[in-house]
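Posted in: Structural Biology > Protein-Ligand Complexes

Title: Requesting predicted complex, heme C in pocket

I'd be grateful if someone could produce the 3D structure tokens for the following input. Sequence and ligand are given below.
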Amino acid sequence: MRLAGKVVTRLAALLLAAAGWSGAALAANSSQTPWGPDYFPNVPLVTQDGKSVRFFDDLIKGKVVAINFVFTSCSASCPMETARLRQVQQLLGDRMGKDVFFYSISIDPENDTPAVLKQYAARFDLGPGWTFLTGRRQDIDLLRQRLGLYMPALPARTAGTNDHDLSLVVGNQGTGRWMKASPFENPEVLATQLGSWLHNWKVASVRADPSYAEAPVRLPQQSRGEELFRTRCASCHTVGAPANSLAALRAIGPDLAGVTRSRDRLWLLRWLREPDVMLAEKDPIATALYQKYNKVTMPNLRLGVGDIAALVTFLEEQDPAVARK
Ligand code: HEC
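-- Reply #1 --
Done. Output follows.
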């Protein structure tokens, strides 16, 4: 618990710094939390199903929540973020929508209509308890400010870039505990925080003693390729996961075992560099994969030549290990 406690303290400090909140009462009791209806605007929003809701009354009041800001035309970071949160959702299982709620709010409300959001959620096959929302731009900007996730637009903004803070705020409105977390955080740690740390006043912990030490990440002697794979690819891909295993069923993209043999080397190198361009050019393999994988596109991760080489080496190294099993 000590390690997890430290992490929580660090995140809380980050959150307070980012949002400019006073640190006086992070854990207030439910009746006097400073972050009540006076702090959080009760702005109207619309869900992906076209239902009108109010931010404070309907979405966060008395609930444990995770909130982030997305836009569906964002091709690189948002799908990664969504994929990672999807893992957290799966770890939380049937507590989603009962004890814990996720909200992804569009920062591109002009384009992200409820229908567009609904299609996006369906592509990722997101389960209950995760709502996508849109609304009026000024209301959404206000929410971003109050949640400490507002990045003012850069003056010389290139068309099409919608810079936004890739963080997520998790909180328990009832107890007034709020913190900022990265969606790239280890999903187990996030799930544990949401499921028990924020929540322990209501439900017994899922795990007795959650900590980074227990999380299934091998820290020592990680190669560059392995590190890249874990941080950039593993939220969507497995390597050599048994066909019907939970991991394989949960994955968003194909299992990558043997991919260095099954695909032409130049195809693979180019795919890792610019999958978006290959899809746009209607490369036949890319198009077939895209159809097969629910029309979720593999994001262009802006990998450098060295990163790509390290990843291919990592994938090759996995191959004999898989074959031996
Ligand atoms: C947001 C999810 C996501 C992330 C992150 C992601 N991919 Fe993919 N990947 C996909 C999807 C989905 C496909 C199937 C093609 C498509 O729909 O674009 C795919 C296809 C592939 C393929 C082709 C597989 C085949 O059978 O030929 C390779 C190789 C691949 N990804 C490698 C990677 C690597 C390496 C990374 C990390 C650097 C990565 N991907 C990150 C979703 C993702």
